[in-house]
Amino acid sequence: MEKKKRPVVTKLENQYIEEKTLENIRNKKRKKMIKRRTTLIMVVGLFFVSLLVVPLFKNQSQLQDSRIEQAEAREKFESLEMDQEKLNYYIGLLENEEYVLKLARSEYYLTKDNEIVFSFPEDKKPDHLNVQDKKGSDQETEVDEQE
Predict the structure, then answer these.
(1) Mean per-residue pLDDT pooled into runs of 10, the chain (147 residues)
(2) Is 90 exposed, middle or buried (0-12, 13-18, 19+ CB in 10 A)?
């Protein structure tokens, strides 16, 4: 064990020195307490700030997700509008009596008096059937996506 070295300078033992020593000790304790309080206030402040910031980030991500969903819904709405326009066009055609007669002749092989119909395998489907086929395949893919 090492011996403690005695200080070379000797202390005077009087009331002034004792007061100054006690004052220095109190100042050190006071500074220590101030540092602790400041640290505690900072930690508590950061805690409350984080309580406010976390929901802000959550709301930001929800807003981004809703914007993406809105863009997807807008695209779907535009495609449905286009389909609606096509269907309205074909409704207009079906209101035309000449088109209905032509359609009945081609699809159901109806004829006028003394008329002969020749059907070939490579005959094209009527326009309205193409639209219905596209709609049916779109509905099937939507059902597959939902599953």
Answers:
(1) 71 87 95 97 96 92 96 96 93 87 78 75 62 56 49
(2) middle
